[in-house]
Amino acid sequence: MKHILCILSLLVTSLASAQELNCEVNVVSNPALDITTVEKEIFKGLEQAIFELMNNTAWTKDEYEVEERINCVFQISITKVNGIGAFEATLQVQATRPVYNSTYNTTLFNFLDQDVGFGFLRNTQLLFTENQFSSNLVSILSFYAYYLIALDADSFALSAGDPHFATAQNIVTLAQSAGGTGWRASEKGRNNRYWLIDNALQELFSPLRESYYEYHRKGLDNLYNDQELARTNIAAALNKLLKVNSSRPGAVNILNFIQSKRDELKGLYAEGERKQKVEVVNTLKRLDPANSSKYQEILD
Question: Would the pTM count as exceeding 0.85?
């Protein structure tokens, strides 16, 4: 009996070390909605089902220690109830990455998905099966799981996110044939799941993925050893985005990257040389002219 318990313990430990995400899940509803008691119970069940899917699924074959898990937050805000178990919502996805030799966590991704439509009934279990469409909700959640894993991998090694981006793209392809919103090029301009993954895998956007690596691995992770070198590498990483932006101005991937780093950059260059700060601010303004005044704060 003890031998069997020992084997089970090892299996549980093995599974626990394989999961990649440490995901906090929140399901809230618009205060203007008239939510019934039944629907409130469904939302609680939905929150738990999403939590279990995100945290208990081994998304890859890679081994992750507990401290290596990707910290992320998924907040679903219910905006409309279309009937029993049929909902429309928005989904805010945030993910962070630890910075070497510090207690600081940098934002990898912060995105609001405004096209989340799905069905869910009480006691429904959410399961992901690769190369198979099970539901729009599972597809959406699984897409972001792989997208976050890919971004995290890219931030540690050049092009390390390739296999995970490829899986995310396959999820998009399967979901397109099953219906649902947010999976096609024509929806929400160029600010949806389709464009997030399409851009990530295009050769044109390779400088962006290089920037993810250089900004995090050569920049932030070097702050402890050489702050001046780290700031120089970060400035060079941002400058690489100009080439992409000249061909695809306002691309969702670029805007998401620099907007999530805005406050961080203000802190990073607070003690930097004035000349370097001006160069960084000018780069950011060219990449995101609509928010020029916010980047100007870096010089204050």
Answer: yes
